[in-house]
Amino acid sequence: MLRPVIVVVLLVTSSLAIGLMNTTASASPETNSSTALPVDGPDYGVNESRFQLLWSEDTDQANLSSDDLTENASSPAEFSQHLSRSTDYLFDDPIEDVERWNSGDFDDYAAGDEETSIHPEAAALENRRFIKDAYSSIFAVNPSTVLQSGNESTTYIAPEGEVLAISDYRVEVPDDSESGPVRDEWSLEETDLESVTLEADGLKLDSNASHRSSLEYSSLSGDPTLAVEAEISAQLRQKERTCDEYNQSTDSCEGSWETEINHPSEQLTVTDSVNTTVNRVDTADGNQMAFEADDNRTGAVVHPGTVWSGIDIDDNTQVRGNWRFYSAGADGWHTMVSRTESGATRANSTVRPAQLYAVPMQAEPDVAGGAADTVEPPLEIEATWGSEHEAPSLGDDIDVTPVDQYVNTSSVALQSESLAADSFDTVTVHGIVRGQSQSVSLENEGTVRETNLNLTVLEVNSSGAVVEAVVTENATGEPVTTGRVEVGNQSAPLNASGMARLQLEERPSLLVDGTYVAEDWWRAETMYATAEDRAKIPPKYPKFAQLVELALVTLLWFLPVSLAVYGFDCLTDGTFLGLTDTDDR
């Protein structure tokens, strides 16, 4: 799916968006005068609209108005051309158009004759006595993606593919010498491009003997260095005449000439190479889990095993990786040089390879689906893990802004309550190199078991409390021995009996809330669900000795007072409190 970088793409109508991908209409070559676009395109099965998107290094014009983009575009192809002048483009997936263009444009290269070497300006030229301006340059590796991260770039290739290379040279025949006692006549007898060989870390993979070589490879893995070696030979004829009585003043031979025929030859091997990493997705694996408390809930863990662009759960749901893709012309191919003994001429190259690049555009993977933005996605990413990296620094001519930091995700944990459980039986992992996809069967790893947490407050005082936690399996009552219990700001792991004791630093009010935090189900050998419990602070009843002491203190305090009051009432004949009856006297 095409994904423009700027918001202006929202101006496109649905018909233009469809045409952007499928139209074959042509546009006037004067519309974009930047030399970054090859003059011989579009061609080779790449339509006009998509052709405009392959050259992100072209000159962008940020001041184009919306009218320039829409109202002044007479066709979807012209709209694409206008938009390509204002920004660069990101694709969600590795596109095949780069390979189509490279395979077709490669055939446009024509080597020079014996006296001319035609080479891209960046070619590494080598010279010997006779063989001059010799080189072999890798035009493209199909398919491949250059991943940009931090200050590094890594060329990812497929396990099977082809290397396109061009090679050329010229032969410089020495000038004849027509004076002096020794005179030479030179001519070229034969010259040949003996072979062009593709090797991976010294192992020969394929070869031919063409200036324009398509070399195939297969079954690669690891980090091979792909090298192209071109072997060149030349043989000359030297007729050497030597005078035995030479008159220097008259520059003439007054004796006889002795003639010797020589056939000097020369060989030269020129090379070009690229360091690569094979994007193999056939090592991907994973598993799925059920949840004891919810039959509709399914979890899964997928380990893609390599840098990946997407994981398809079903036809409508995909986990997208960090990467988005753009295409740009390969460096060093904008100018083609024709070099002879007398000098060199330069011209805009009609042989222009494109290269696909991957850049991190988000910190972590996300879920893409057909649901509207207001609808909760059918799949949740529980966790991702991998290595952290800095964003790459792109050239000024690339109008793409990567995320500052990102995680190169090597594993992803997923869960869904709406997708059918069998959706996770087989998922498809896509690499960052076009065509690299692998269906992965997720084996059932087990069930996330429900648990029960029981909290007991053992002791409470003014400085805190002691809480005991016991965690068991709901179904069996067996103790749970993994994970930890959290109460307030305190945390303690469970022991072999499924218990944990926590010392709270502050006295609770009336209630104590706790949580059993299970190990992440996507990492644990035995998977458990979290649980919660609430305990009440027990009432503080006085001890028996304290009650006896209270009774004695009360008696000792109030008995004398009671006797004094009664005695005073007796002295007043009951008139004070009426506690005594004077009639009885």
List keywords for this structure.
6 helices, 34 strands, single chain, five-stranded mixed sheet, mainly beta, 585 residues, disordered N terminus, ten-stranded mixed sheet
Overview in brief:
With 585 residues, the protein is mostly beta strands. The chain has 6 helices and 34 strands.
Describe the protein.
The chain is mainly beta. Helices cover 11% and strands 46% of the residues. The chain is built from 6 helices and 34 strands. It has helices at 14-22, 48-51, 66-69, 76-84, 97-106, 544-571; strands at 2-4, 89-91, 117-120, 131-149, 152-171, 182-200, 203-208, 212-217, 225-243, 246-247, 252-253, 257-262, 265-278, 285-291, 294-303, 308-312, 317-320, 323-329, 335-340, 343-348, 354-360, 366-369, 380-390, 405-416, 426-431, 437-441, 443-448, 451-461, 464-473, 484-487, 490-493, 499-504, 511-517, 531-536. Strands 4, 5, 6, 7, 8, 9, 12, 13, 18 and 21 form a 10-stranded mixed sheet that branches. The chain is rod-shaped and about 180 Å long. The N and C termini lie far apart (118 Å).
Task: Give the helices and strands, then pairings.
Layout: E1 2-4, H1 14-22, H2 48-51, H3 66-69, H4 76-84, E2 89-91, H5 97-106, E3 117-120, E4 131-149, E5 152-171, E6 182-200, E7 203-208, E8 212-217, E9 225-243, E10 246-247, E11 252-253, E12 257-262, E13 265-278, E14 285-291, E15 294-303, E16 308-312, E17 317-320, E18 323-329, E19 335-340, E20 343-348, E21 354-360, E22 366-369, E23 380-390, E24 405-416, E25 426-431, E26 437-441, E27 443-448, E28 451-461, E29 464-473, E30 484-487, E31 490-493, E32 499-504, E33 511-517, E34 531-536, H6 544-571
Parallel strand pairs: 4-21, 5-13, 14-27
Antiparallel strand pairs: 1-2, 3-19, 4-5, 5-8, 6-7, 6-9, 9-12, 9-13, 10-11, 14-15, 15-24, 16-17, 16-25, 17-22, 18-21, 19-20, 23-24, 25-26, 28-29, 29-32, 30-31, 30-33, 33-34
Helix pairs in contact: 1-4
